[in-house]
Amino acid sequence: MNLRTLTSLHFCACFSGVLAEAIEPIMFIGVGATLGRQIYHYLRESCNSNWIDFNAKGLKADLDSKLFGQHIATRIILKAVNGFMTNNNPKKPLVLSLHGWTGTGKNYITKLIAENIYAEGMKSNFVHVFTATLHFPHQSHYIQYKSQLQQWVKGNVTNCERSMFIFDEMDKMHPGLIDGIKPFLDYYEKLDGVSYRKAIFIFLSNAGGDSIAQTALDFWKAGQQREDIELKDLETLLSLSVFNNNKSGFYRTSLIDKNLVDFFVPLLPLEYKHVVQCIIAEMKAREMKVDEKVADQVAKDLIYFPKSERIFSIKGCKTIESKLDYYV
Ligand SMILES: Nc1ncnc2c1ncn2[C@@H]1O[C@H](COP(=O)(O)OP(=O)(O)O)[C@@H](O)[C@H]1O
Ligand SMILES: *[C@@H]1O[C@H](CO)[C@@H](O)[C@H](O)[C@H]1NC(C)=O
Ligand SMILES: *[C@@H]1O[C@H](CO)[C@@H](O)[C@H](O)[C@H]1NC(C)=O
To answer: How many Å lie between the centroid of ligand 1 and the Cα of residue 152?
Structure first.
């Protein structure tokens, strides 16, 4: 039986940490310090293959069944993460940049990736989320933020080379702060004695969302299938709107011209039918009876773009959780 089944069978993940804390000092004095320490390390998340173990099949299954309407993102993420995680000697960390409107699945994708790498998923001590407006709210303090962030990244990667860093609202980050993480993303064997090559960096932003939506709308108006949209239809537009837009934190950072971002991942705006899928998934997650009428009602209540044709949900699947509370 591996550790993952053991912990999930016998302990709720949220208790395992607490339990381990309690076990270490008290219970095992009698059993012997060595055994005590072994059990402690067995229960307490550590930077080893008991706790960090990439599940390629799991990631594919999750993306295929849980992520709706994102055929391009699904393909890129699988290729990127599989390639990186099965390479024992990567030459640089994996750097992904996810772009799209709110509620289209950017955070959700990072959660699915984390769950298929870390036994503890997003709760792992090796997964770090930074939100621009939360962690770095004052643009004028960026010099201070920058040195703090650099210390955090360095400290965490020193602890565990398989660390994952997620930067939400990347477009709201001061360009100077983005420049501060640039050295970590590069091809250095070691930087100050630390290798960052096995770490994963994921940037999330709305930047480029409007041009992605425009392309999706053009396809729709031309009567073409959403599934016929390809990465190449979006790539140029995306880089223009992200990097030449002076409102974007990416503006004039040399992330792009140094090719430090390995994959740009466009998230398409979600259609009515995807919103319905999200609502039904949420009903199942809450162990409610699946009621398609209610799902329809909730989906109809959202705001769509363009106003006349109502094709794409402006907030994707974001607000459905609270809307669902209101209807049931
Ligand atoms: N493409 C999608 N497929 C399935 N569920 C989705 C999708 N997009 C969003 N959701 C749902 O909506 C919630 C909010 O989406 P999130 O990933 O946080 O959006 P954002 O793109 O703003 O990061 C998610 O937790 C998930 O339940
Ligand atoms: C790791 O990052 C977190 C923020 O996610 C920070 O609070 C912590 O101090 C960092 N650890 C080290 C050792 O730097
Ligand atoms: C950004 O660009 C717009 C239009 O090109 C311009 O009006 C604005 O002054 C610019 N802002 C900054 C901060 O450079």
So the answer is: 28
103 close to ligand 1 (CB < 6 Angstrom): yes
Q: Is the CB of 70 under 6 A from ligand 1?
A: yes
Farthest CA pair distance, the chain: 75
The response to whether residue 128 sits with its C-beta less than 6 Å from ligand 2 reads: yes
Pull the structure tokens for residue 162: 């398989």
- Whether this prediction's pTM lies above 0.85 is answered by yes
End-to-end Cα separation, the chain, in angstroms: 41
What are the boundaries of each domain within the chain?
3-43, 63-265, 272-327
> Which distant-in-sequence residues (6+ apart) come within 8 Å of 326 by Cβ?
none
pLDDT in tens, 88-119: 999 999 999 999 999 999 999 999 999 999 99
Type of residue found at 126: F
Whether residue 146 is predicted with pLDDT greater than 70 in this model: the reply is yes
63-265: CATH topology is: Rossmann fold (3.40.50)
Average pLDDT of 114-138?
96
Tell which one of 156, 158, 192 to mutate to probe ligand 2, the residue whose CB is within 8 A of the most ligand atoms.
Answer: 156
Ligand 2 atom with the smallest distance to the CA of 151 is 14
Give the model's confidence band at 153: pLDDT under 50 very low, under 70 low, under 90 confident, else very high. very high
